[in-house]
């Protein structure tokens, strides 16, 4: 029987929303209110729809995390668009398993830590804004990478990649932070992608085309 645990304390609200979304929600709601006062009925309906969609986009549901100490959980909700070995990468030495997860605007965009460890490095790269589902997005798009060392001295990397309409990557970590598996650590606004680089010895638990959930779905098991 599988066991689960909370990495973050459950939020005391029926519909939790990420704090990063508050300015967007407030702006949309205020604009809608002004339109209502002026009397633009059709624009008010559009404003209400946009406000509700922004609330939907920034939803931040609680998740229970698999308690298996070797499990590596997904850092994002979305679809696995790549899962294969790469001979070289910018984050880990040598051969690694690369897993790419594409998040559409309809997915939860909160990012979670794949595995326990300590943040050894954080690397930010300015770049372009190609469609995040494309392979070249990993290299060319704006991205932010965290490199983590586990208790067993194993390194992995998790890379937040901006997408076609994404213009803001949020990462709440600093070097030296001690991480819990499944804890929230950031988000990317309005469509994006997460790449995870794992040791080549990882025992895979997913394949291309799978739909995964952050903190809950197991990508693989550390050996």
Question: Could you characterize what this model shows?
Answer:
The chain has three helices and 16 strands. The mean pLDDT is 88. It has 223 residues and is an alpha+beta fold. It starts with a strand and ends with a strand. Strand 8 and strand 9 form a beta hairpin.
SSE order and pairing:
Blueprint: E1 4-6, H1 22-38, H2 41-57, E2 64-66, E3 71-73, E4 78-86, E5 96-103, E6 110-112, E7 117-125, H3 137-140, E8 143-149, E9 155-162, E10 169-171, E11 178-179, E12 184-188, E13 192-199, E14 203-204, E15 211-212, E16 218-221
Q: Into which percent range does the helicity of residues fall? A: 10-25%
Helix run count: 3
Strand content: 35-45%
Q: For the record, what CATH class of the largest domain applies?
A: Mainly Beta
Using the coordinates shown, work out and report the CATH topology of the largest domain.
Glucose Permease (Domain IIA)
Strand order of the largest sheet: 11-7-8-9-13-5-4-15
Distance between the termini: 21 Å
Q: Tell me the major beta sheet.
A: 8 strands, antiparallel
The domain count comes to 2
Broad structural category: alpha+beta
Order of helices and strands: EHHEEEEEEHEEEEEEEEE
Radius of gyration based on Cα positions: 18 Å
Query: Which descriptor suits the 3D outline?
Result: elongated
CATH architectural type of the largest domain:
Distorted Sandwich
Q: Based on DSSP secondary structure assignment, what is the total number of beta strands? A: 16
Give the low-confidence spans: none
């Amino acid at each position: 029987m599988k066991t689960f645990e909370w990495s973050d304390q459950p939020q005391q609200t029926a519909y939790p929303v990420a704090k990063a979304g508050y300015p967007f929600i407030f702006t949309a709601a205020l604009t809608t209110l002004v339109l209502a006062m002026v009397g633009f009925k059709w624009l008010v309906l559009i404003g209400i729809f946009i406000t509700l969609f922004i609330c939907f986009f920034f939803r931040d549901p609680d998740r229970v995390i698999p308690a298996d100490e070797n499990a590596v959980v997904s850092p994002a909700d979305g679809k696995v668009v790549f899962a294969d070995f790469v001979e070289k990468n910018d984050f880990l030495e040598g051969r690694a398993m690369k897993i790419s997860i594409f998040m559409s605007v309809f997915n939860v965009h909160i990012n979670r830590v794949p595995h326990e460890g300590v943040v050894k490095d954080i690397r930010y790269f300015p770049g372009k804004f190609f469609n995040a589902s494309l392979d070249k997005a990993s290299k060319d798009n704006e991205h932010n990478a965290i490199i983590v060392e586990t208790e067993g001295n194993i390194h992995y990397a998790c890379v937040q990649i901006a997408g076609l309409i994404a213009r803001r990557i949020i990462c709440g970590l600093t070097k030296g932070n001690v991480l819990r598996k499944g804890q929230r650590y950031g988000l990317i606004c309005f469509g994006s992608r997460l790449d995870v680089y794992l040791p080549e010895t990882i025992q895979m638990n997913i394949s291309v085309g799978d739909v995964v959930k952050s903190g809950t779905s197991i990508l693989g098991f550390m050996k």
